[in-house]
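seq/struct pair 1
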Amino acid sequence: MNPPPPSSPSRTVSFRHWPGCQERWLSFTDGHSPHDWHGIATLSTPANGTPASGLGVVILGGGAQSRVGAHRQFVLLARAWATQGHAVLRFDWPGLGDATGTVQPFDQLAGHAERALNLLKQHCPEARRLVLLGLCDGASVALMHQARPQSTAVDGLCLINPWVRSAHSLARTHLKHHYLQRLRQASFWQKVLSGQVGWPQLRDLGLNLLRAGGHHAPTPATFQERMRQGWCRFQGHRLVLISQHDTTGQEFETSVRQDPAWTPPAQAASLQWQALRHADHTCSTPDTHDALEQAVSRWLASLAT
C-alpha cells in the first residue's frame, strides 16, 4: 500500500541502525504538484564514531526498479559505502516501489534526480561533494540531468552499463562483439558450407551491416543527444563500468569510443573505464557484485581525499 501524502514537503519517516551505518526513511513530494507524486527515499549514513567522508551519493535505478534494486543490489551497495563514511541516498521513481504517481519514461526523470540531490543536501549538509550513480537508464538519467540548464553541479558520475539504445548503435555493437568474432572462426564457415547456417542468419548479418553503416546523427530531441550533451558538458570525474556479458553496456562503450562527438572537453577531470569480467547487466552473482562494489569504493575514496 502506498503511504499517505506527508504534511510537509520533506520529513523523516523512520530511523534504523545497521552494523557500521544508520538509515533514515525520508519522504518528499514534487514541489510543483504535491498531490501528484509522493516519493520515498532511504538515506544511509556512517554509524556514530565513523568519520564522515564529506561525499554524498545518489543512486539512480534503471528500469522498473524500486530503491531496493535487483537482488537487493542498491541496499547492499548503499550500506557498504555508508560504512566507508559516505552518505548514500536511494529513492523510488514515481509510480514504483512506495512512490505514488504515474510511471514516467526514463527520459523525463532528470527533474526527479535534481530533487533527490536537494533532499540529500538538506539532510546531509556535511556532504560537500556529490556523486550521481546510475545503472542502465538510471545512468542515462544522470547524463541527461547534467545536460539540463542550472542543474545542481556534481563532482562525479558513476555510470554502470548506460542505456543508449538505437538501431544504429545496436547493429554496430552486434557486429563488433558477435558477428566479427564469428566470421573469424573456422567453425562458422564450416557451418555455412554445410548448410547449418541458413538464410535467416545471413540475412541478420546483412541487416546489421546496413544499419551500422553510414553516418548517424541524432536529432536534438532524442534522449541519446541529451545524454551526449551531458557527457560533453560535465567537467567532473567519471567512472564507467561495463559488464563483459551485457549488450547494453557494450553498446554505450562502442558509441562513445567510436563517435568523435562524444569526446569530453579538454578541461574535464579524469575519465576511467573499467570492465566487469564475467558480469551480466546487474552484476547478479556474488563475485560480480563484489567486484562492482569494490571498484566503486576505490573510486569514491579517491574523490573523498
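seq/struct pair 2
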Amino acid sequence: MQIPRLLCLAGSVRSGSCNQALAGAMAKHLSLSEMDVTFLSLTDYPLPLFNADDEAEKGLPENAVRLARLFARQDGIFLASPEHNGSVTPLLKNTLDWISRVPPESRHAFRSPVFAIGAASPGALGGTRSLAHLRDILVALGAFCIPQQISIASASTAFDDKGDLTGDREARFLADCASSLMKTAKKFKPLESA
C-alpha cells in the first residue's frame, strides 16, 4: 500500500519567518513518521494579484495550475498561516484564490486532501485569529479541515537552531496535530491511490 503523500507550506516567504519554521518542523516530524512529505516555499510559485479581467485576458498563471495539481496529488496538507491584522496574509489568500480558479482534473485541489492548519506569532495569541479565518476560507472551498490545530506564541524564541520546537508543550501540540493529520489522511485516502 502506498504511503500517504503530505505537503507542508507557509503563507509567508519572509526571511526568518516563524511560520516557515513551523511548516518545516511539521514536515520534519511527518518525515520521521515515514510519510511521503513535500516541503515547499511559495517563493518558488510567484503569482500576480488575482484579477478576473487578467484571468479572462491571459488565462490562468502556470504557477496556479502547478500548485493546484500539486495540492490535488496530496492526501494531506499542512498550512502555516502568519497573522496580518487579525487575518491571513495577502500572499496566502491570493494563492488560495488562484488555486481555486483551476478546474479539477482527476482530483480536486481542495476536496481531495485533508487539511491541517497552524500559526506561529511573536505575540501572545500565537496567530489564532488568522486560523479562524483560514479555516473559514478552506471550508468555503470545500476542504475538510481537521479540528486539531497548532498555535505557537512567542515564536521568535520557540525554535532552536535545528528548527525544532524548544518547548515540550508546543512539541506535544505539533505531534498531536501531525498524528491527527496522518490518521485522517490514511482514513480518507482515495482508493485509486492506495
